Structures are given as C-alpha cells and as structure tokens.
# Entry
Amino acid sequence: MQIVTSLEELRAARRLRPAPLGLVPTMGYLHSGHISLVQRARAESESVAASIFVNPTQFGPTEDLAKYPRNLEGDLNLLEAAGTDLVWLPTPAQMYPTGYQTWVEVDGLASPLEGAMRPGHFRGVTTVVAKLFNAFQPQRAYFGQKDAQQAAVICRMARDLDFPVEIVICPTLREADGLAMSSRNSYLNTDERQAAPVLFRSLNAARAAYYAGERNAEKLRQIMTDTLIAEPLARLQYVSCADYDSLQELQEINGKILLSMAVYIGKTRLIDNFVLEN
Amino acid sequence: MQIVTSLEELRAARRLRPAPLGLVPTMGYLHSGHISLVQRARAESESVAASIFVNPTQFGPTEDLAKYPRNLEGDLNLLEAAGTDLVWLPTPAQMYPTGYQTWVEVDGLASPLEGAMRPGHFRGVTTVVAKLFNAFQPQRAYFGQKDAQQAAVICRMARDLDFPVEIVICPTLREADGLAMSSRNSYLNTDERQAAPVLFRSLNAARAAYYAGERNAEKLRQIMTDTLIAEPLARLQYVSCADYDSLQELQEINGKILLSMAVYIGKTRLIDNFVLEN
# Structure
C-alpha cells in the first residue's frame, strides 16, 4: 500500500495504477462501515484508493472539528488489510491554501434535513469531493447509505457536473444492537451507548407501521418521535419522512421514501435512516 | 473532424483521441481570436477539441442570450480548417436538464468588475467550464486574455478544485484599428463600429501615461474616462485600474496591473483590457 501526502505525489502514483480505480473518501477513524466500502471497491476495481482527510469546510463553527476522533495508524492498518493500493493524506493547508475561494454547491437537495441543521455542511462536502474526484480521477467512488442525504447530494453533483465517476452507495453497517456504525459513536459513554440504538428502534417501529399499510407520513414521523422521546438520554433534533428523490417532507406516501432523523444522545449528534419502497 | 452532440458520444470519441488533448471552449460565432486559440492548441497538443455552446446560465435576464449571434456552418468550417479533431455541440437541455441544481462559484475574484455588473455571470461561466472539463477531460484548455477576469476566475477555479488541466491564456486579437475581436462586434452598425476603437485608444492613453511614470491609479482611470467620454456614441459603464492578482481597485500602483473597462457603444456592451508590468 502506497501512502502519499502531496497532490503531485498522488498524481504520479495514480498514473501508475491500472483502471478502473475505485475511490473511498473518508475522514478517518475507520470502522467496519468504511472497510465494507473498501471491500466493495476491491471486488469490482483494478485499483483501490482511499483518502483520509477531516475536512474543515464541512464543519460548522460550533461543531466537533477539533475533537473529531483520529487514529491514523489504526486506519492505515485497516486499509492495508482490506487491500487498499493507494492512500492520500492531504493536509488542510494543502486542500485550502491561502486565497482559496472556489465552492461547489448543490441547491435543492442540500437544503432540507442535515442541510437545514448544518448550514454550509454540504457546500464543504461537495467541494471536497469535487477536489478528490479531480485529484484521484477515479472511475468509481464509494459512499455509505448511513449519510443518506450526503449520498443523494454527491450523486446529484456528479451527474450535474458531468464527473466521469460512477457513484456507488453501500448499505449502512450496524452494531449487533442495531446502532449504525459511525466514528462519532466513540464519543458515547456507557449509558449513552446503551441508549443510542433508540434511533434504530424508532426507524424499525415506523417501518413496521409502513409495512402494515400506514401511508400517512405524519403518522410515521409521530411513531419515530414517540419512540425517541421515550428515551431519557435522547434529544430529538428532527425526524423526517421525505420523498426519496426530492428529500421534501411528505404528507401522503406514494413511492420510495427516506425515513431519517438526527438525535442528540448526550452531547453526541447521531443520524440514521431507512429507505422504504413498497 | 468529428462532430458529436450527446455526452456519451463525446466520451466515446474522447477515449479514442491521443493525449494530451487541448480544449477550446467557445460560444460560437467564431473569429480570428478563437481560431488563434485553436492554432495554439494544435501546435502544442496531440489532439484538439472545441465546444460550441451559448451557455444560458452566464447571461443575465436582461442580457443578449436570445439574440447572441450564431453561425454554426461557418464555425465548423473555421474549426476544421484550423485542424480541430473533435467538436462537441451540446444543447441547453443536455447541459441543464430538469432538476439541474449544482453550481461552481469563485468568491473573491468573481465579485468586482464584470462580476459586479453582471450578477451570476461568473457562476454560469465556472459551472459550464467545470462541466466541459469533466466532459472532455482535457490536459490543457485555452481562453482569451480579452476576457481578463474570466481568465483569472477560471485559473483560480482550476487550481482550487485541483482540475488536472493546464489553463493557457492567449493574447487578445485586434482588428486593424485596435478594436478587440469579439462576437458582439457584429451588433455594431457602421457609425458604432467606427466609434468602437475608443476602448483601445483609452487603454493606449493610460498605458502611455504609465510608461511615462504615472503610478497613481486614479490618474490612469481618469485618463481612460476622459478618452471615452469624448466619444459621443460611447457610454462608460466602468473603468478600472486593479491589482492583477486580486482584481481589487488600486490607489498607488506597485506591481502588475489590469487596466479594464466596459463601455456601451449604442446598445452593444464591449469590454477590453491591458495588462501592464514595469
């Protein structure tokens, strides 16, 4: 596994790797969810690359950039074991040098849900992903369904800007009790960790109602809310039952939907989602 | 010369062309200025591609999108004679299908001068150029110095977003009387055409003062203004003496500068510029 730091090194290393190249962009502190993306890339591509970069522009001023967990040595071991060929470790000063001033923005899809709660977040995401696409020139790029809106926004960006990259969205990986894997789970203390599967339980409750025939979106939101507020350590930020394509809140359900939520467990903000279709 | 319309055709045609590929993006109605870009690309690249696309997103609601001059047959003849290998003729519906919502924006450099007079103009330019870079995947792209701020904004975008494309800026071509070549010159009637070299004359007057030692930027702006207002058919929109790198207006001159202006000759808006450095 080759590890590079400068963009020039990356471009030189990239040229020597056979196509198609599959890229897994990450912010590090890798878990099995990330590794499942690498494994998928490994299964379908000649070359597999990853980036580790805690992207400052996707964090708001009051968010957890400074304390975002890091474990470079562990990350590199996991990437190597999963068969990664090439890893880029750019620095913030490399990615956003003095005078940096270009932004990629998706208008509609980035506005509701996470976009409403985290102003500027998706502008940071789409900008850094555009930069990573230009730096790596991958044929495929892998993202997790856990960040459902991010996946939708990146698909839209890639399509709108004609990036010659296939976006592959991979299933959310979960702990045994249903908690979606996330680097931020490391913030949870023992009690909070025990409370955290309430997101998964509330999604399950809504899904059960949906499969029992419930097509009133407000009812599904209410079922998720009821489950969440029953957990004393949980503080609900939003629950959503939205059209899968537009991410707009629904009244009547008529097609593919995204159930999603953001919930504080103590001081840790967690998100989760299910996609439902018939 | 191969002419393609769909993006899929373009990608297939592109794959067959040897690298490096030089791209000349145009809005058509080609003149010798455009052709000089093609010739430069031809001289330095294995393959030469061009696009003809009157990009609606870079026109304001009151601007000349609908009446922008077109001459597809003439354009294709000129491109073929200059040695172009591949031409893409996308349609607005292809470039901006229903649901399109992604924009590339340069913050600082795009704000003054043309950006102040034409809100949204550079957002349209950088977005379409990003799309063209992704569609053609050129190693080099050629733009004219005539649109000085556009050149600066595109260089900034390519650098900030890590596009693997070298941006080549080529000199402004001029008519015998100094008028900068522009597709919009075709709007001018006989009297206006005779008046139009006043932009060039005013730039020359300021340059003469600069070479005579004048380093007060306001003086240079005044010299350009005086020359322009002496022409009855000219209506000045702005004159600028700006720092070449930041495009911010100067008081004292201390390095490379951009003299630039936008002037209405009748109903036709013309721009021109000189770069000066010692």
